[in-house]
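Dear Dr. V.,

Thank you for agreeing to look over these. As mentioned in my earlier message, I'm a first-year student in the group and I'm still getting used to reading structure tokens, so any feedback on how I've presented them would be very welcome. I ran two proteins. I've put each sequence directly above its structure. The first is here:
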Amino acid sequence: MSDNKDSEEDMPEDPLDPVDSDYSDDSDELDYTEEYTEDYGLDCDDKDGGEDEEDGSGMSFLEHLEEFRWTVGRSLLAFFIGLVCVAIFIQDIAEFLKMPIISAYGSVELVDKNLITYRPMGVISVFIQIALLGGFTLSMPFVLYFLASFVAPGLTEKERRVLRPSCFAAFMLFLTGAAFAFFIILPLTLAFSVRLNQYFGFDLLWAASDYYSMVVWFSLATGAFFQFPLLIVILVYLQVLPVSKLRAIRKGVFVALMVFAALMSPGGDFISLPLTTGFMYGLYELAIWVGSRIEAKLREDELAEMDDV
């Protein structure tokens, strides 16, 4: 019996014994876990805490709705202030909007004689159109800023970089389009109409409501349409639309612009139609040129990042 007992004492310890094994040591297990989490960037203890922190930093649906409500409220306030400013100077603005027809007739006396109103409430229509659309034009920069501030937190860094320049370019293109229509297209179109009626010996009378409606709406529509080159450049920058595709559809774009110009031109004459089409197609070619430079810059940045890796 003693021999058996001594032999049992001399036997080596079982490496899988849960009592004496190294794997049962709490300190060793803790060190192993910490080493593993440090090597692989894991943090088991903060698994739930990270989610709570991420949820806490975001905005709920009601908070987004509240922010949108404030954005709409600020935009409406800016529009109301612009409308009041236009209403205060409504007479001066109405005289300024006579410039295209004065240029067509070449005489202020003829304009005062031929610009009439034959409806009792026609002057109210003139007042409302000038006030509303003038207020929209004055408030447009502020409305764009408020909208940009609202959508900026939900954009990526790449999209956020192009947001502020896009708002500024949108406003400048709008002014360029409206000025192009007001100072170039409308005087030429009205002059052609006046000369044609004088050639046939007709007295051309203009209803004030129709004239101001044509001037204001055509100018605003042209300014709005001048945004399409900016949209093209943004799509190229975001790598949604390649420049090669823009070059491939040049002919189709030219035909579409000609049809749009024919529908948009107030007189539909052979003077305003080619001018409007040519200017808008020139903007399209400018967008292709800017887009090609943007694509080249993006390609250089990608190659530089690959070299750094």
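The second protein is here, in the same arrangement:
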Amino acid sequence: MSNMPSRPTQPLAHDGERVSIEGTSDASLASVTEERRLAEERVKQRNPRVVTSDPSGEVVAQVTAVSKRFLGTLALDDVSLKLVAGEMFGLVGPNGAGKTTLLRILATLIPPDRGEVVVCGFRLNEVKKIRGVIGFMPDVLGVYDDMLVREYLEFFARASSLPPTTRDYAVRETMQAVGIEHLAEQPVDGLSRGMKQRLCLGRSILHKPRLLLLDEPASGLDPLARLELREILRSLQRQGATIVISSHVLEDLADMCDRIGVVSRGRLICVDETKNLIEEQGTRRLRVRALGKGEELFHHLKAYTQIDGVRWDNDHILFRLGGHQEQDLSDLLKELVSKGFPVVSFYEEPPSLESAYMNVTRAGEGWEVAKS
């Protein structure tokens, strides 16, 4: 950090003219807020929007037939995707599937080998313009340990070319948005994992990006921190941001995301609304528990021709029953009781994103999948 020369940050420009900042250093908070709003409006005027006839809304990013290879490995294979303004889009897939590669291409960090990408009306060779309207939070945290939290965000505010007149307000507003305003004077290296995640998220949203790319933002967070992160992301979405999240925490994605894309072996094998994906691809399972005769019940269920997927889950037995009509369930329960099994718990679990994801990926790899 000490070897980096300090360069004055130029204020935002409009139609080739610099914005005058004389006499505004002592402006009131209301005046600063208004000036920032006007600056953001000028940025929007310089960023033409991609508008299509798609009824779901304005297209923020369009990925068309993109492929990327690293040495002998095909990381992305003919991927096409459209992101709509204001949506929260989840990317799921196993390690090495290509999720991070896709996010890094959208963030202009690596170029594709083939295909076309347009972000907020700009093509990938317009790197500076794209980086002005996106925020990227990588899976590996990058922080400068010798800085205070406030200094860290001020550094990135200057790097994002925020006007000097609105920079302090932007830093304070961002710290409040991600819940770290009480840590402003704390050194970055003393923060917990969760607070560092918040700090890096704050770094990504300082300039109010239209497209926010998050790679495993909940990695290593405890349940409470994950819940708080979800609320922060929902707030950003309500403010109009389009958010793309790559995560292995499927429960969070099912709760937050409007649509889900499943990536497997470099291919985007399924894109659907979250609710539709769960209902159409998810597996409905039955859960049963019997006092004292668990092992006997387990083997009894495995002998049924209409039952498959029998397995233990702690002291419960999980399985799938063909048909799943209410009468089928009633008949099975009646039969188990008549056989002398002391059933104390018997109910159907609704389908989940986890089961839908497993079914989609297995079907994409040629496995036979039972959804009933």
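From my reading of the second output: Confidence is low (pLDDT under 50) at residues 1-29, 42-55, 366-372. The chain is about 35% helix and 25% strand. Does that match how you would interpret it?

Kind regards,
E.
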